[in-house]
Amino acid sequence: MAAGPGARRRSSAVGAVLRLGLLGAVLGTARTAVYFREQFLDGAGGWQKRWVSSESRPDLGTFQLSAGKFYGDPVRDRGLQTSENSKFYAISSRFKPFSNKGKTLVIQYTVKHEQKIDCGGGYVKIFSSDLDQKNLSGASPYYIMFGPDICGSETKKVHVILNYKNKLHPIKKPIRCKVDGYTHLYTLIIRPDQTYEVKIDNEVAALGNLEDDLDFLPPRKINDPAVKKPSDWDDRAHIDDPNDIKPEDWDEPEYIMDTSDEKPEDWDHAVHGEWSYPMVKNPLYKGEWKPRQIDNPDYRGVWPHPQIDNPHYSPDCNIYSYENIGAIGLDIWQVRAGTIFDNFLITDDEDYAEDFGDETWGETKDPEKEMNIRQAEEEQHRQRVMEEENFEQWFKKKREGKSESQKDRIMKSPVEKEEL
Q1: Which of 12, 57, 195, 206 has the CA that lies 20 to 30 A from 315?
Q2: Distance between CA 216 and CA 165 in Å, rounded?
Q3: Residue 285: its pLDDT value, please?
Q4: Nearest to 65 by CA among 54, 55, 50
Q5: Distance (Å, rounded) from C-alpha 100 to C-alpha 347?
């Protein structure tokens, strides 16, 4: 297929990025700062110069450059792929340090769990420039952790964890991640007005205010300790029905003696003590009697405790900002390997990030699905052919066995007549 103008422009942009080494501040426009961008377009040799594998433990898993078993483009869809089952992984890449103070921070990348992951991380971490890359591990301090995490049927969420005053604060909102095995685009936006936005495949998945959705600060308001609930305030929605009376035959013991049992003939009183009937569950036992509940005619609702300003609350307009941002890394555990990380981007421009996502993930996602569907259909066809061949072989052997049996009967018939 002939390359169109868009493809030529992308090719030119890729070449420019490669000449700059994909590191440092690359300006997309006069106002856009691109602090980090990585697409692994220069093949197997280049990325290993930019990414440092941790040596914090001898049994860490290794990454390989791969587009996976199915893809939209064999070159553009290549990324870092986990290659060993039941392993920890740790790898990172540096860039020119910067501060997002007074600026929007956008962190974006793609991840594909083509192995239909059952338990493992797919998130990234953002570090300060003083990260010890050779000793990167789960104990390494980080600024931000963002991305999907899957484990079993219950954990299928997107992490948003921010470091504030050396304490990690996870988002309180549940954000569900994608689990279909295809490549997906994850974007975190943190703005100077202390708002945030999480996008999946360039669609908003969550948004809000950092102070409201993460417990950075004490609450602005607290209950007034000087005010107590009035003694006549009834906040019981239901009460016991005074007209309900316990039935006379209700009270029965939970266990009763089984008088149908008999003492064993070899019972030794000296060894076992005095024999007694065993206790069994009483079929007439109904449990503790409780009167039925009725609406409380005096119910006044939940008492609204008066609120006052929290004397321990102090606003902080710099929750969103970090100094010396200088590294991005993958620090994950995976039971089943095969996840591919690609199209990393750190910038200050939301529109640029969205366009970058459309020009990378957006252009290969449909061909990727088509290839996967085609492979599945081809595999189904191979299975059908194999089953048909196996059946034909089985039927042929059965037919040959039946023919030999008939010949044996024919050969035996004259002998039987002569003997008779």
Answers
A1: 206
A2: 9
A3: 92
A4: 50
A5: 10
If we measure between CA atoms, which residue out of 98, 120, 158 comes closest to residue 347? 98
- b/e map of 232-270 (b: 16 or more CB within 10 Å)? eeeeeeeeeeeeeeeeeeeeeeeeeeeeeeeeeeeeeee
| pLDDT score, position 171 | 96
Q: Which position has the token pair 């252009």?
A: 363
Low-confidence residues of the chain: pLDDT under 50: 1-29, 417, 420
Match 């948004």 to its residue by tokens: 207
- As given in the structure block, the two tokens for residue 279 are 């206790």
Give the pLDDT score at 120: 92
> How many CB atoms are located within 10 Å of the residue 311 CB?
8
Q: Give the number of other Cβ atoms within 10 Å of residue 358's Cβ.
A: 12
**Pairing between strand 183-190 and 167-170?**
unpaired
As a whole number of Å, the CA-based R_g of the chain is: 35
Q: What's the confidence (pLDDT) of residue 420?
A: 40
Quote the tokens at residue 111: 């991840």
- CB of 183 within 8 A of CB of 77? yes
Q: φ, ψ for residue 126 (rounded to 5)?
A: -110, 130
